[in-house]
Design brief:
The structure holds 3 protein chains of 3 kinds. In chain A, 77% of the residues lie in helices and 0% in strands. By secondary structure, chain A is mainly alpha-helical. The longest helix of chain A is centred in the C-terminal third of the chain and has 38 residues. Chain B is an all-alpha fold. Chain B is built from 11 helices and no strands. In chain B, 37% of the residues are buried. Classes of the chains: A mainly alpha, B mainly alpha, C alpha/beta.
Amino acid sequence: MANTRQSSSAGEIGAWDMFMYRLSRWIKSPTPYLMLVGFALFFGAWFLLSEVFKVWRFASLPGPRQVLIEWFNPNPVYGMSLYTPDFYVHIWSSMRRVLYAFLISTALGVPFGLFLGWSRVFREYTFPVFEMLRPIPVLAWVPLAIVMFKGDETPVIFLTTLASFYATALNTMLGVQSIDEAYPRAAACLGASKWQIFRHIVVPGALPFIFTGLQISVGVAWFSLVAAEMVSGEYGLGYLILASYVNVQYVVIIIGMISVGIVGYASSALVRLAGDYMMQWRVRELALGGGR
Amino acid sequence: MSAVASAAVRPPVKKPGKSLFSNPLVRAVISIAVFIGFWEIASRLNWPWVGQAPAPTKVLDAWIPLLTDQGYWYSWYQSSRRVLSGFIAAMIIGIPIGLAMATSRVFNDVTFPVFEILRPVPPLAWVPAAIIFWPTQELSIGFVIFLGAIYTIMLNVIGGARSIDMRFFQAARSMGSSNWDIFRRIVLPGVLPSIVVGMEVGIGITWNVVVAAEMISGGGGAIQSSAGGGLGFFIWNSYIGGSYPLIVVGMISIGIAGYISSAIIRRLGILVTPWLRLR
Amino acid sequence: MNARNQSATKGAIRIEHVDKVYHAREGEVQAVADCSLDIRPGEICMIVGPSGCGKTTLLNAIAGFHDITGGAIYLDGEMLCGPDRPKADPGPDRVVVFQNGALFPWKTNLENVAFGPVVQGKMGQKEAAEKARGMMADAGLAGVEHNYPGEVSSGMRRRVEIVRALMNDPKVLLLDEPFRALDSLTKSVMHEALLEIYYKNKVTIFFITHDLEEAIFLGHRVAIMTTRPCRPKKILEVDIPHPRNYSVLTSPRFRELMEETVSAVHEEAVKAFEAGEKEM
C-alpha cells in the first residue's frame, strides 16, 4: 500500500506508460477484433439490405455508402455536408441551447438539491411540489412552453433546462442523503459550525452523485432538445432531422442523427472528465482497486 | 423493568415541542396549496412567463366535462396501448440480449460497441427514419418507444448480471448444479432486482417518448391524423385549436398515467423480489 | 509510572441516572435505563457489552449526537445534558473516533488532521498543517500526509483518525469500537500504538468494545454493561500496572481477571442474542 505513494510522487509509472501498457494488453486480447467484427456485421448488413439487395422496407432507407458520399461531398446534392457552413450552424444552435440549459439547470439544481438533502424542513415544504410536477413528461410541456415563453429560442431552452434540472436536483439530493452519518458527526465533534459542515462535508460528499446527475442531465438535455427542436424552432439538429424528412432528403436525416450522437457523446465525456478532475480522491482510490 | 418505573420518579428531560406544522403531511399540503395559489394569482394578473399558463380553476373547468367524454378516455387508451406494446417489445428483446452480453464474453465484444455507438442518438431523432422505414405510423411510433426503453433495460440487465456474487456460482457448482440450473436459479433471480429498476426508469422514458412521438408525427405536419390519437395528440390538438386549459389537462393526464404505471411496476417489483422486502 | 497519577485534572465524566427511550417501529425501546458511571480524569475506561446493547447510545449522548430522556451527564462538573437541555452540543473537548472510521475521503490525511483547529478558527491553515505534520510524525505517520485516506491501509487510517482527534487537545476521547473492522494482528499493533499515544497525551479515554481481552489489556477499569436497557452490571479494576505491552496477555493476573469477568459478559451476550432473535 505504501509504495503507491512513492510511485505517484516520483512519477515512476506515469499515466502515459500506464496507457501504453493497457493499450498493448488490449491489442493482444481478442476484444478489438471482435469489435471490428461487430461493426463489420452492422454496417455490412445495413449496406447490403438497403443498397445492394434493397430488401423490403430497407430499400427506402439511405445506405451507409450514400450517407458517407453525401457527408464528405464538397458539393452536396441536398446542401448539407461537412463542407457547408449550414451544417455547423445547426450543430452550433443545438450546442448553444444545451450549454445554456446545462448551465442554468446546474446553477439552480445543485443548490436546490443540496438544500433538499441537507434540511428536512426545506425538503418537506418544497419536495411535494417537485414530486407532483415530475411525473409530467418534459416533452408534454412543449406546447405550454411555447404559450408561456414567446419566441423560438426560450421555449426550447426552457424545456431542455427543465429536463436537466430534475436529474441534477434529484441526484444531488440523493448524494447528500448518501453521505455516511459519521462524517457530519465527526466534523461537529471537531468543532465545525453548521455552515462549515455544509461546505466541507455535504458538498464534497455529494460530489460523486452530483456528477452522476450532471452526466444524466447532459443526456436528457439532448434527448429533450431534439424533440423540442422538432416541434418548434428553426435551426438545430432536431429541426434539421425533421425538416429533411419533410423535404424528402432522407440522407440528411441520417447525417443529422449521427451528428447528434457524436455531439451528445462528446458532451457527456466532457462532464465525466470534469468530474474526474474535481474528485482526485476518488480517482486515486479507484485506481488502487476499489477503496477499502 | 424496575428501572423503567424508577425513571418516572426523577425529573424527566423536556422534549422539544411538536406542533401541527412539524407533520410532513401537513407541510406537503401547505406546499402544494401555496404552489397552486401562486399559479392562480400569477395567471389572473397575467404575469409574464408563469402567468401565461392557464389558471388552475380554468383547467378544472375544462377538465370536468371531459371526464364523461369518450374521446378523452380513448386517448388514454391509445397512449397506454402504445407504451405497453413498445415497452413489452423492449423487454422481450432487451432482457435476453442483455443476459447474453453479460454471460458471453465473445457476444459482448461483438455487440456492445455497436450498441454503444447507437445509444447516444436520442430516440426521438429516430422518428423520421422510423416513419420512412415502417409501413404504418403505429409501427413507427411503437419502434421509437421500443428504442426509448431498450437501452435502460439492457444496461440494467448487464449490470445486474455482472454484479452477482461469484460465490453464489461457486456454491451452486459445489452442490452439483448444471449450467441450466445456475442460469435459472442464480442468474435469473440475481438480475431480477436490476430488471425492475430498469423497467421503472424505462417506463418513465417511454411516456416521454410517446408524447413527443405523437406530437411530432401528428403535429409536425408529417401525417394528417384523425381524432383519437392518444394524449400527445390531445395536447397538440388543444394547442393548435387554441384551447390552452386543455393543454394542461393533457399534461396532468399524462403525469397521472405515468405515475400509475411506475407505481404498478414498483408493486410488481416488490412482489417478484420478496427477499428484498426486509430492508 | 502510573499515567493516571501524572495528570489527573481534566476529563472527568459523570453519568447520572441516564435514561434513553427511543421510538422504533416495534414501539418504544428502552436503550439505556438508570445508568450511572463515574469516569475518572485521565483514565482509560472500557465499556464492554454485546453488540446492540445500548453502549453506543451512551456514547452518542456524551458526544451530543442524541438526546437523553432522563438523568444528566457532566464533564468536569459542567452539565453536558440534563433536565433542561436533553441534547449536548458536540464539541472539540469530546472527540469521537468512529466504528467504521470517519476520515473525510475527499481530504488528504494532513488536511484531515488539521481540520479541527482550522474550522474552530484557532489556527491558520499553515500553522495547523505544521502542527499536524509534527503530530503525525510522532505517531509514526510521516510519509502519508499527502495521500488520501483511501490510499493507505486501514490500520493507518485508524491512527490518522486518532491523531486528528488529539489535535484538538480534547478532555475526553470517545472511541466507538474503533478497531472492530481490523484483523486481529493489526488490532494488536493498534493496541500498543494507542497506549503509546495515550502515555504521551494523557487524555481520558472512553472506549467501547465487545472484546473482553481488548478491554482488560487496555483499560484501567472495565465496565461490563447489561444488554437493553444498558447499565453497568459489574465494574472491574484492572490492577495490572501501566505502561503495558503484549506480554501482559500471558500473565497469570490477566488470566485471573479474564476468568473473573468472562461469565458475566457471556451471560449478557446470550441475552442479547435471544433478544435479537425475537426482534428479527
